[in-house]
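Subject: mismatched residue count in predicted assembly?

I count 876 residues in my input, but I want to confirm that the predicted structure covers every chain. Input:
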Amino acid sequence: MARELAVRTCGLTKQFDRHVAVNDVDLQIAAGEVYGLIGPNGAGKTTLIRMLATAEEPTQGEIYIHGDRLLLDQSNTTLKRRLGYLPDDFPLYDNLTVWDYLDYFARLYFLREPRRTQRLYEVLELVQLQYKRKSLIATLSRGMKQRLSLARTVLHEPILLLLDEPVSGLDPVARMQFREIIKVLQEAGMTILISSHVLSDLAELCTSVGIMELGYLVESARLQDLYQRLSHRHILLTTLGDFKQLQAELNNNSLVKAWEVMAEKQLRVDFDGDEEDCAELLRSLIAANIPLTEFHCTQEDLETIFLKLGHQQAS
Amino acid sequence: MKINWIERLGDKNPQFLRELQELQFSSLLFAVAISFLGQFLLFIFYQSQLPISYDSTPISHKFCINDPVSEYENQLYCLRDNAGNFVIHWQLWWLNLFTFLSLFGIATLLAGGVYLLVNNLATEQRRGTLNFIRLTPQSPQTILLGKLLGVPSLLYFVFILAIPLHLWAGLSAKIPLLLILSFYLVLIVGCFFFYSAAILFGLVSSSLKLASWLASGTVLLFLLANHYSITGTLVDWLFLFSPTQIVPYLVEATHLNSNSIDGWLILPSSLYSRHWFHIQIGSNATNLLMSSLLNYSLWSYWVWQAIKQCYSKPKKPLLTKKQSYFLVVCFELVMIGFTLVKGDVPAWKEGMIYHYRYLLIFNLVMFLALIMLMTPSRQGINWVRSSQKHNRNGQQFVQNLMRQDSVLLTIGVNLAIAFAFLIPWILFNLEASDQIPALLSLLICYNFILICAVITQIIGLRITQKPALWITGTFGIITILPVIVINLLARNSDETSMLWLFTPYAWAVTKSASQVNILFAILIQWTILGLCTLQMRHDIKKLGESASKALFTESNLHSKR
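Triage response: the counts match. Full output below for your records.
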């Protein structure tokens, strides 16, 4: 059975004066997915996300959130309650305390007591800011502010989360904390659309990715499919025995495309199979009594795939 | 109990609660200090105005009860009691304190509140926080009402603390309690109108650096100009917006001798004769109260229509076409009502042509404002432009623009509505000799408005940076500059007065000018209108082509990749 679509856009276009920021985009994101949006600066990622978040009106095209159409001439009150949007600049009220800020937004999203207080504690725990709840926002670090913004975004339990560059400007520890929170949210069943230049993060988090360039969505696929289609596997082999015997054995495997001698008694093999095929190769080499000291299987990462597609990613 | 109350308030209007949360205890203390210190200083100041007795020399003073003996001798000396102290006219003294407090309160509440609101919205827009609130499911009314109630809350607090003194002063001056309460009602509704207008201005003027000063300065100037009102013309309608208008009615209710009251507080006779569709709205405080409240309510409604649109869709016109038609109907009804005056008032002395000129000027200003309200941002036009991608036909594209987004068509329909009101007015109210010149001047004025609408479109299409500022500047130049130039030129020549025919103020000369000259002026206006329309179509086509080119280039680039 086909999964329900959390987001569907048809011919979505946004034009600013003479510049077409988003061009005829047909995007589909299944419910429960973590969808990564990648592309160079100015590719239209932020504009696309802003349109989905109702912050920007499309010039043309249609947006459906869980099957309901976003209508331009209506306030979309119900749909707004389903969306959580975290922009890249996340403006905050510096003169409010963490608790008052979250309480204010909880009220804006019609959360009533006692659920409101309970939810405030939940999100503070999620972003690990319980101990800062009485602090003024102005006193928080950038990472804390980012986490507070995320808490504000998920406060009303949206079913679709739109995160625009959520980890930009964060140190590695803060980025890791952020990733962990996203994973928790995914487990909670939220559909998450996340744009980022940090492709290693996306590779870790996402189930699907879309690549944008010059306003077009040039690629949109499940991450596994993308790896299968475009990512090559490399196997690093080191043997104590005869090099020729190893090469002969490799020649017998149809999935081995080529190899390169890396050092004395070390080869790097271009392998066209999946993990099971790797295991089969290893089994055949051991069966052939080749004294292997190293059998290391690696796969090309998202950044390599992205660059291979001819895109230039700033990371 | 207190917590429950705050909880419920916050649930009803989270924005109001947030504004209150921003108040600090120190600022509340400061407000209390300011209020009480101000009241104390005022009280002391008026105390110092009382006459002091050093010896038995007879003196005259405005706060004294005059000695009946001296009055008889045409000498106004202060009456003294048995102890030799002056007998103070306390009712008059309290009245002076009351009126000062009232007028000062009105000016500070209106100008201060307007400043705070415009400034607050500018800050929110600059920080980008307002865009965030826009994304929440709360209605624009809830958010902006919260701002209206919450942002000037310190100011409200200062004035609420002054109410006991104000009320006491009013009652001591023997002003009926009901009238004082009416004053408060007018002030509250007036504040609501001005604050609503400030919110609208704040939303549209976020790029203007001195917007808050400009807004509060305009309010102060308006209140000052109000002192010199009561002209027996349509300008009286403008002054109906001022809460100060009710103060002379309160003063009159004291039944004090008009000689002892400051001139500017005495109810002018022309205020009595203010009419709307022959209803005497200025005859008594009740009528003025009702008309003020209705006037505020009607225009507050329209301001909120624009606010809702502006808040929800900042890049769209502030009014829909349908709303603009109803707005023009409202405006014409209100205006025409004020020209239908009964009795011997200055306007009648000069004839209805006097009213007609004001009608034209007010219509001109209203239409120029409407053009600005109806002009979408570049992005509003882009929607149509991108539709060219599909039909790729310039002619069809222009038709799309005319049908869907053009201000021109809307302004044209609105002008027709205004015509429908003004032509019968001219035929029924003006003398036969004035009717043809009046109709011609109406046509010239409306041609001018149409030209302005086309120019606005051209500016909107060509200028992307602050087009509203450019449009305002252009309107200022083409409506005010000709008056200055022609006045300078016409000082020594009658012929230059014909130049008036090319301005919206053609009524000044349509009666004296020859019909050939008038027709010539109308033909020139139509030529300008035609040329401007051609230019606008050319600009639209060019923009459409370049947009298509941009789309094709990007498509090609994409396909090459």
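Chain B has two domains: 91-314, 331-560. Marking this ticket as 'not a bug'.
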